[in-house]
Design goal:
The structure is a single chain. By secondary structure, this protein is an alpha/beta fold. It folds into 2 domains: 161 residues, Alpha/beta knot, CATH 3.40.1280.10; 71 residues. The chain has 10 helices and 6 strands; from the N terminus they run E-H-E-H-H-E-H-E-H-E-H-E-H-H-H-H. The protein has a 6-stranded parallel sheet. Helix 1 packs parallel to helix 7 and helix 8 runs parallel beside helix 10. The longest helix is centred in the last third of the chain and has 28 residues. It is elongated. The termini are far apart.
Length: 251
């Protein structure tokens, strides 16, 4: 989905940053890397940071003499900025920019995201070439992000919005909610265990169990948690039984 999204690195100072940005691109299924007049271009320094899977992106990176040439053929241009206000008012966040970018890509547009030099970023003249700006909110005490970190944040938001089905991480085996029957078994076991340790009043244990039931009803207990609680009850009852046996022997 992000194949028509280009990452344009304008005058990136360090080849290592180009390599690590290529790696971030590969992670998020983006393959178009464009370099504009990098002051030092050393592929041997870039490749280790790209890792083996992103070597192809570095090999195929397009190198352009100026920003206008790099942006030719693109229909929507997003510039990145750490500063706001003045010429940079109305900057989008990555979360608000991503849906627009993905919608434009789905409509067949070619989109570019431009990153400026690590030390200065894009100048006002350069951002004039951009149709929209993106700013990544950060702590006021430290607003500077590494180039590849910034690229990864933006690409992750775009990748997330590009998925046909929202990504849901798979839970560990048994992480389904407990059924009504399982909840009843657990409550009965808890009541028995709490009675064994004299937590519930023996005259009316059902009544004193009500607060526990209400508390348990607030929880979405998973099957693996059910197994855990059942195991705890079993161990508690075993300890209680052993203590009873020891006390009988002493008598």
């Amino acid at each position: 989905m992000l194949q028509d999204l280009s990452i344009v690195l304008f005058r990136t100072k360090y080849p290592e940053n180009i390599g690590s940005t290529a790696r971030a691109m590969k992670n998020m299924d983006c393959s178009s890397l464009i370099l504009v007049t990098p002051p030092i271009w050393n592929m041997e320094k870039a490749m280790p940071l790209a890792t083996a899977k992103a070597h192809e992106l570095v090999d195929n990176a397009k190198i352009c003499p100026d920003l206008s040439t790099a942006l030719a053929g693109h229909t929507k241009i997003y510039g990145t900025t750490a500063r706001t206000g003045g010429w940079r008012k109305g900057a989008l966040t990555p979360a608000s920019a991503a849906p627009r970018i993905v919608e434009q890509l789905r409509a067949g547009e070619k989109v570019a995201i431009v990153f400026g030099p690590e030390d200065k970023g894009l100048t006002n003249d350069e951002i004039k070439l951009c149709s929209q700006l993106i700013n990544i909110p950060t702590s006021e005490e430290s607003s500077s992000l590494n180039l590849s970190q910034a690229a990864l944040i933006l690409l992750y938001e775009c990748f997330k919005h590009s998925l046909e089905n929202p990504f849901v991480p798979a839970g560990p085996p048994g992480e389904r909610s407990t059924t009504f029957e399982e909840q009843e078994v657990l409550l009965a076991n808890l009541q028995e265990t709490l009675s064994e340790i004299d937590f519930l009043n023996e005259d009316n244990p059902e009544y004193w169990m009500l607060p526990v039931k209400r508390f348990m009803a607030k929880l979405d207990i998973k099957r693996n948690e059910f197994n855990l609680l059942m195991g705890i009850c079993r161990q508690v009852k075993m300890v209680v039984q052993k203590n009873k046996e020891i006390n009988l022997e002493k008598k």
